[in-house]
Amino acid sequence: MAGLLTVSSSAAQAAIDPPSRLHANLGGVSIDQYNANNTGQLPNCPSGSYPKIRDCYVSLLQKFKTQEAAGVRFRFSVWRAMEKTQTGNDYQVKSSWLTNLRDFLQDIKNAGYTYVTPSPIFFGTSGDGEQNIQVDVTVGGCTDSVPTKVELTFWPTAPSGWEPGKGPFAAGKDQSYNCSPPNPIFVGWDNIYEVIDALLAEIAAKGLVVYEFDLLNEINLHWFTVEARFIYDNMIAHSGDRDVLTKVRTLMSNHGFSPDRVTYSPKTSRTSSPGADCLSIYGDSARVIGLSEVTAGINGGLVGHGASWKDNDSNAMYLPCRTGTNTGEMPAINVYHTQPSVIDIHDYSCLLMDKWTCDPNKTSADTQVEAETLFTKIRQYKNAYCPGGWHGYNANICNAQVVVGETHSNTVNGNQTCEGAPVNSAEGEVLGYNDSTLAGTTTIVMQPWYHAFDSCYPFDNPVINPPYDPSQQD
Question: What's the whole-model pTM score?
Fold first, then answer.
């Protein structure tokens, strides 16, 4: 596949409207293997010239820095940072992981970056200690008939299980936050906090700044309400402080970082109908329902989709449109937190050819229209929390900086990008933002996707600027 790749020669007609920043997005980084020999883990990084995995990342960091990137987003496995203590069943942070982490952060520092955005991986990765276990489901709302037994996949660092092929249990059922069973092999929150604390301590020691701490990547409280356990874990069977958001904010403060920068990054909702929109059950644009859900969950409110919605409206195909105001069995988190000062939303604007897939036959101009619509809806969402807004005034949301935590890479793979979007969608994303009412009203950070472990992404010439040309490089 790599042989089919070229880098898009098209550049956006203008830089990202100021104030704007560009951050490099490294995807998942295997910190536990950072100093290991390069034996093809990063398929497009030649081992002859780059004998260590670390050598590959040093090169990538330098290349992105020369393109005016000011920060680095990376994801890391929490499980791979842990090991059992010699006595008992407790865990501690691996000394070898800490050594590799220090080297990785030093390489970021040496390349001239200021900011980092860590994002923990708690589940979903093969080889991270997962087990298939039969469990009882004795509370209504998760299955059609109870009591019953189900086999779920559990990861040691997640507070709930996965249903094979469907994601977190129970997909599409609002009551999963309350009725999804506790994880019988959960390591407990205190062990997880120990890893996060060690990470933040090392970032501070290197003189780097946490621009954002993305506590759960692409959280989906619309369809998987159980993921709200990463805000507040309602399972009394789990040890440690179950107010996850408050605890991580405290750890950020302890190391001199802003607690308001702890966030959760949802995805946008896309459509097959150009420029279409409708209202979600929250009364906001259905295109940003993921953001509405996160705000509600942090606020201690209702999450889920309720009984009055559908995602196949004739005028807004595939958007989660409300058909009434019946909140059905939507669970309340019931623990209030203040809102973060950063909105992180992942957007790969395109027109869909089915519920999940971009139509590669569309053009960057189509992406531009969709991106303009989306960013304008984000502006409207922020305005709803400004003075006079219908949601009521919330200073953090009204004045929030916007991070596009993931977006189109500037790649070409046949007739589409590596993410399956139309060619030159990166250009369309930038121009759509510039045309939107959000442009110029807030600092925006663009973080185009790059995954070194995927053979689709070029190593020698990974161009993100242009089109992601920022006005600020500090």
Answer: 0.95
